[in-house]
Amino acid sequence: MIANLKYISALIIALLLTALTSCKEDKGITNYYHRVDPVVSLVAKIDGSNREFTVVDESLKTNDILIDLPYYFPEESEDEIDVSRMQLDIIFHEEVNVLSEIPTIVDLTAPFVIKIKNADGKEEDVHIIADIKKNNRAQILSFALPSIGLNGTVVESVRMIGINRSNHDLANIVPQITISGGATISPNPNEPQNFHERVSYTVTAQDGTERVYTVEDLASINNFDITKGVNIASWLSTPKYDGPQREAFFKEADVALLADLGFDHIRLCIDEVHLWDETGNKIRAYGFDLLHNAINWSIKYNMRVLVDMHITRNHRFTNTENTLFTDPDEPAKFVKLWEDLSDELKNYPNSLVAYELLNEPVSGNAENWNRVSALAINAIRAREADRTIVVGVCTANGSLRQEQLTIPSNHHILLTDHFYGPYLLTAYGLQSTTGGRQDIPIQYPGQLVPTEWISELPANWQSTGARFYDRNTLETSLQKSFDMAKRLSAPLFIGEFGTMNTTPEPSRSNWYRDVVFILNKHNVPYTSFDYKGAGYSVVNENMTIRYPDIVDILLGK
What we know:
polysaccharide degradation; cellulose degradation; glycosidase; alpha/beta
């Protein structure tokens, strides 16, 4: 009897434990079934166009997803947008079950309804809505005085247009002005004006927004405004050629091409050894002479120039440490270079030429760069109070140290960072990434390398190959740079980004498209690497466009 009671007691205890475990599991399941916001992201395109349209962020918290669309498209035209043939790239929450079939082409002249089952098991409707608004752009895009061969410089941040008033008769001149599509301008640009005096123009957008621009003497404008540009390498930095061949590599026609394509600036990379000899004397032929040529060509075509000190005798970005930071005599030599450059270039307008202190500073201690950069900034400021100075991020022990960068003042400081992530993708096919192999499959977005190919990668790249990358992961990678700019209260631009031409399509274009999208979203200007003559180049040496689709992405077309 006692044995039976023990048996029954043990059975009851076992049943109670099972019930408790079951209750715990049921509680977990009950908590799992909750409602989520159905749509994580959405990108729309008009069928036949590469232009991407995004959603109003706040609408992602609802079931009415609003696609932000212009009233006119192309936006500089007066053609009303046609939303009857739209392509939708929608990412739903992983806990949402999509019940409707989504066709390749969607008509958004009326809300498009998608039926889903949410995480709580309830069926819902998601409405995709074309939120069409009249353009609020009221901009002067270009300004010229063609009768005297003079181009104006539009400085959007202060809504000024700079013209060179010296040695020109400007008393009765008819300007040539380009404005935002659908906008109007007053006074009538066909009327002659006396541009020896300040002249104001009011531009009115489609939605009634007004902006006033004033035409001033170029020398009085200090703001350096840029949006999209290209690096000029292989010329005055690690040049591909010497002598006359170097001179022929980059000519006025190249600047004209870039301006015609729609770029507004160049980052002109220079190396100390090609502009100064070992005794510190300036090298004119095929050195400073070419530097001045490039700046003057750029000014002629209303292009801005960032003069970038790429490599010095005491610093190279491929080193793990540099004598610039370890030898106490070297910082003074670096400062002297910038004193020389400032004396050489100080007469160029502040709105058209900026100075980048050093490409990709590298030191075992990020504080070393803070100390040396402050010396150079103060030396330039003693000569040029309002010149824009570009300051980059130090790499220490293999990691970018955005959080450690300091500047003595944010007055006309432009911060810069570079982006090549993930490097296994952007430098695909190099000895340093895939061991020189180009037969290993790689894709973006998604898991970079298929699982079955991971073991074919060099050991140090296998974990990267197994990771998933998309627009969100790239934006997360760039967030440190955005946070740095906010912390230092200074604007940011991305001075280099790009992929080797060995990166396969469509992954290559997908990556460029996402990086440009992210930078535009955060209003960060950018300069792609690079123009021609190297593995990243988008133009051939004969000036034909090597990768037209990539160029269109860079220009936002």
